[in-house]
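Q: Give me the 3D complex with adenosine-5'-triphosphate.
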Amino acid sequence: MSFDVSLIFSALPKMLMGIGLTFQLLVLSGVLGLALAIVLMLMRVSGKWYLDWPAQTYIYIFRGTPILVQIFIVYYGFPQLEFIREGILWPIFRDPFGCAIVALTLNTGAYVSEILRGGVLGVDRGILEAGEALGLNRCQRFTYLTTPIAARLALPAYGNDVISLLKSTALVSTITLADMTGIARTIVAQTYAPYEIFISLAIVYMIITLFIQKLMARIERWLGRYTVRTGQT
Amino acid sequence: MGRRAQVRRPIFTLNHEKGHAVDVLTGWWDDFFWGSVVVAQVFLASLVLMVIFGLLGAAAKLSSNRIFQKIANGYTIVFRGTPEILVILLLYFGSAIALTAIAQVFNPEIKFLDVPPFWAGTIAIALIVGSYATETFRGAFLGVKPGSIEAAQALGMNGFQVFFYVRVAEMWRLALPAFGNHMLSLIKDTALISIIGLNETLFVAKQAIATTGAPFIMYIMVGVIYLGFSTVITLTVMTLEYYGTRHMRSAT
Amino acid sequence: ETLRVGMECTYAPFNYRTDAGELAGYDVDVATGVAAIMGADLEFVCQQWDGMIPALLANKFDLIVASMSITNQRLEKIDFSSPYRDSVGRLVGRSEANLNLFDEASNPIPENFKGLRIGIERASTYEAWFNATLPDAETVLYDGNEPMYLDLRNGRVDAIMTNPMKAHLSFLATEEGSGFEFVSPAISEIEYFGTGVGIGLRQGQPELMARLDAAIKQLINDGKLTEFALKYFPFPIHNEKWGDS
Amino acid sequence: MSATQPLIRMEHVGKNFGTFKALHDFNLVVTKGERIVVCGPSGSGKSTMIRCINRLEKHDEGRIFIGDIELTDKLKDLNAVRREVGMVFQSFNLFPHMTILKNLMLAQKLVRKTPKDEAREVAMHYLNRVKIPEQADKYPIQLLGGQQQRVAIARALCMKPEVMLFDEPTSALDPEMINEVLEVMTDLAKDGMTMICVTHEMGFARSVADRVIFMDAGEIVEEATPEIFFGAPRNERTKLFLSQILTH
Amino acid sequence: MSATQPLIRMEHVGKNFGTFKALHDFNLVVTKGERIVVCGPSGSGKSTMIRCINRLEKHDEGRIFIGDIELTDKLKDLNAVRREVGMVFQSFNLFPHMTILKNLMLAQKLVRKTPKDEAREVAMHYLNRVKIPEQADKYPIQLLGGQQQRVAIARALCMKPEVMLFDEPTSALDPEMINEVLEVMTDLAKDGMTMICVTHEMGFARSVADRVIFMDAGEIVEEATPEIFFGAPRNERTKLFLSQILTH
Ligand SMILES: Nc1ncnc2c1ncn2[C@@H]1O[C@H](COP(=O)(O)OP(=O)(O)OP(=O)(O)O)[C@@H](O)[C@H]1O
Ligand SMILES: Nc1ncnc2c1ncn2[C@@H]1O[C@H](COP(=O)(O)OP(=O)(O)OP(=O)(O)O)[C@@H](O)[C@H]1O
Ligand SMILES: [Mg+2]
Ligand SMILES: [Mg+2]
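A: Here is the predicted complex, encoded as structure tokens.
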């Protein structure tokens, strides 16, 4: 089979029509997942077993099973449950986009919460003790000391998770969504030219990945400006 | 033949028909079992390959050879930036073509060589996770305290001895936690190989759904199986970590 | 000689796995029958529908026996044997919805498709027909046939276009299918649905094609195809004119 | 807090970590203006003792009073105590993500509710006192160790505490920087600040301390004026310790 | 190596890091049995100098001889030199994943090809000498700092070196542990071991050193017997440094 470059040029614009959907999935489930992650992380570090255990179980289940299976359970499995089909959330679960957001959010939330927890645990105890000795209460210490330092510690790992999330969005084509991958698969099914289409799509994803990495590096530099010893003897 | 096609069971609902859940699975247990065996096989094969790819990548990145560094950088950029599903599809469709082309260079007689879905999928996920392992191994090698290495050099050990007895011996302990996560990624990525028709658990579930029309219970079943695998891996890593960090616990 | 045959393995009653784990269905019977006549061994390869032709071209298997219709578009890439069953499509929808999609002359009424979501399998003849005839209809693409039925029942799509034999047998005639009905006449425009369903093979193999044709003809003449069909359907699903009679 | 009564009273204080007794029947009274140096071998409970005073550790037995307030779990009391007790750590523990000025202003604003401008003035005042006003807008990492520790002292002083606690403030510093920190501490002592200071800097102890306390195994082994302590220690363990510290 | 000729000769040695000259026209001759203490402010090139001697750093200019062997890139020479030169680091640098005994046996087996049983005997001999034979089966982290440093000394001694290099061996230690390490070093000196020792422990220098060398900015600023060095230093920089080190 020969490599047909002209095909790429005709297919690329079509595939890029799916980029909007890819970004919607990425941003929406990224933001919702972060919110979920913060809740889970707070439950984990609360020191109360009745908050810690449920969070731990949740994280264990969602990190221990494939995202594809989670997507299938939400999309194909949930509608079998009467209370979902009759419930008020049915408009969300009826819609494949809603299902994709739910599955991706639940999944990334589990991962990110562990990253955030790592950041929180990474904050030097001595710094918190200094805050305590100065009379700052728990809440003030968390807001003014733990949060900014933990955010900076967690950022590199968080960046990697955003990239994982981007890659996971490619799986929504299995539940009828026409994201970039979904469109590409349809084109392949019509043109029978998997290499041209998939390779050019892979390059598109790589460019987005590099873009995310650059963005994260920039945020990291900004957040971490206090970690560089510049201009001082 | 065709029994199920003609007399379809009513579709499973959790609410009104208790006990139905297990009923639906009757006849599919052995399929899930063999599907799990396939998952285990893919996992073990890709684990070996992943370690090899990771070590090669790390060695290349740490080497002073610019070309090796470039290749390894390219490798990690490509495989960390491309969705797994695309890598698997590409390798599945592309492997036969590429292999045949290579083989024909050596022996023009060869009509075609094929990579079966098992190996296409296995190599694909090993390449993907190997790109992450590259960074882990690299970091672990760098994490070995330079002081240990200098002490070994000062004692007169040669390059090989320093590498083997000090670097590697310390490095694997450092790599272990992240490596455990890579193993979890591998096991979970095996689910994607169902897309190219490998008869693993998720594919079994799809077939079972075609016959029983009970996606919820079938996919939950797959989830449970994967959770089992993840648990075994996690426990193994914990044991190894316990063993590997003896020297970090104080005796008192 | 071993022939590797690609199929979906999830398309009851044409090709699917029984709960005993065995492959069964009309396509499987045809493949087995053809192989027996040709004196070849068989090996089945399960392949998701949208990758069927790329996989054949990538040498993943030698033949497609997967209810694939012989269409012009496909003929550009692969060859087909002579047909072994009919190829038609029909829409299935909810009875209550009173969908009025076609006029008396059996032509679609595009306005009435507005706002409807139609489920179709990716890369199927139905998709090609839809894209050409009703480019403005909203189509939802599936990787397999079964999820499409699930979503029809769940109300995620308003209608699906599919194989009427399968739809009748494994859906409409069952309990789950109550409340649903065919909402279109049988559509079989040759341009999209081709002359029927055939066995796909890579181009440039006239000899293999001739042997396949002969074997199919023999199956028809021996009454085998009718026999196969009656295992699943109350009627034969091929055209007797394709045989010698 | 009135000057007539002791500022700190520790009565039969005990503290256990699991089965290990880090402090045992510990008694100490510190009056206003007193300067106390605490020394003793590693693990003898010096840090634990000092951390009990501002309740970074909770004592398990006995009672501790800061002024009139007894240290208990009551939050209001605790905050009142922490406001009166300044603490300086071995590892500086500056807030790494804030500039020096912000380090000095944070607790003033949050705990004392000092208005921003006033907080800044106070901060600059104490930065001047520790002689590094020019570093106000730098981040901690950009300062040398000795400078960081001086900032840490200034940060504690900004809260206008009645007592200052020092836990080995110079032992993480390079030799050249130790003196600059000790100088600041000596100045503070001269101004009449009440201080409890864990340190092995015997020169400092000699010139500043009113009392030297030697701890071992969670107890006070010897307590004396510097003259007696260094000149004629009575206890064998003290003698051994002093010989180890002073010979090199 | 014969006793008549110097054990270590450094001639016009220079070492640059980028454009920065860490060592500059450095000359030093050490004869067998000599004990040399090197001191100087941070960054003055002490570590660099000592690391050049067993080629943990490569010098850029001049020549270095260990016995008859000149230090070059030749591997065989390098191994011969490293066998004769023992080194002790500030941060101990024990192999964390091996027990104490294994730490002492590894290089013997790999470099000297000593049989296992003999290696163990040698190891136990030196562990006895540094007075911690009972710790043989523990891991480094389970030992106190002073004990770890003594193990590190024993490890170097196991290779039966001609010279021992010490790079601030006590500056990472708590005060109480410094003496136990200095004692081991003093013993070693008494046994006639040739030693070059970077340290700021002036008591040790006084009692042990044949010569004290004061370095600054990569050069030798002053070189004298301990009596003269501490009693009547000639150079201004030396005086300033000594005043900083000794006052506290
Ligand atoms: N959080 C803790 N958990 C368990 N044990 C502790 C804890 N904090 C201190 N200890 C133990 O209590 C004992 C006294 O510790 P402390 O830090 O008070 O000693 P120290 O005199 O300050 O020693 P150093 O000079 O090393 O700072 C030590 O044996 C220490 O191991
Ligand atoms: N690998 C290196 N790369 C760049 N510069 C270095 C390197 N090693 C040392 N230097 C620089 O060389 C100078 C001398 O360093 P060296 O470690 O020899 O000083 P030192 O006298 O041992 O100081 P200290 O008392 O802090 O150990 C320092 O300014 C240091 O920054
Ligand atoms: Mg302490
Ligand atoms: Mg040094």
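A quick observation: DSSP finds nine helices and ten strands in chain D.
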